[in-house]
Specification:
By secondary structure, this protein is α/β, with parallel strands linked by helices. It is built from nine helices and eight strands. It has one domain: Rossmann fold (3-Layer(aba) Sandwich). It is globular, with a radius of gyration of 16 Å. The structure holds NADP nicotinamide-adenine-dinucleotide phosphate (NAP). The site of NADP nicotinamide-adenine-dinucleotide phosphate has 24 residues, from helix 1.
Amino acid sequence: MKIQRIGILGAGRAGTALARVAALSEIDVDIASTRTPQMMKYHLAQYAPQAHPVMAKDLARNAEVIVLMVPQEELDDVDRSMFSRSILIDATNRWHDEPVPAWFEDMLDAGLSSSEVVAARFAPARVVKAFNHISHWDLDADRTTRASGQRALGIASDDAAAAEITADLTTQLGFSPVILPNLKSGLILEPDGPVFNEVLDSAQLKKLMSS
Ligand SMILES: NC(=O)c1ccc[n+]([C@@H]2O[C@H](COP(=O)([O-])OP(=O)(O)OC[C@H]3O[C@@H](n4cnc5c(N)ncnc54)[C@H](OP(=O)(O)O)[C@@H]3O)[C@@H](O)[C@H]2O)c1
């Protein structure tokens, strides 16, 4: 499936880097933060000039896929119903020195991975874990491996169709997608895991996942 437009919630380092890469790949981008489109004007002119600023509540209106790039500590302020049944790519990371809302901590303590917490919180959105283990520097600058489609990015979801669509998006952006069995298995993509921020091709990523 060819993705025509994505939405990005979070217009910081990660969100604007993804917006720039998407623009290079001829994918339209709607982007939102806590600020109004007018307030984002100069920020986006500098960091993601081709992205279209929208109010967060309007992201699900046009985009086929929404990428969550807001720090987890801010997730209390993200409207739970905002994503409806959209595909929601969770690119956030659990950092142990980052305080998170009590509901987030409670679900982690109950044994959920951070993306499973996001999935529980934002249901019925179709949550996919992806784009979390590549830095904004590499998203932007790693053009050599991207151009040759070498760098592999892991994708984890309990929704097989949503994982496939995310894989298509990953390919369009110039990376090599590797689909993991389920959302829980996305734990391997998290900051303490062996693939985080590593430049790996598909074979290397699969090998690490099976070891
Ligand atoms: N930086 C990376 O290399 C990278 C790579 C992959 C994944 N990630 C993950 O992505 C997440 C964001 O990281 P970052 O480095 O991009 O952070 P950042 O530079 O601090 O940017 C955070 C963005 O989130 C927005 N935001 C905060 N609360 C919000 C809310 N309630 N609703 C909408 N937008 C909100 C902020 O908007 P305002 O400016 O309006 O406050 C800002 O645009 C983290 O979980 C991080 O681990 C980061």
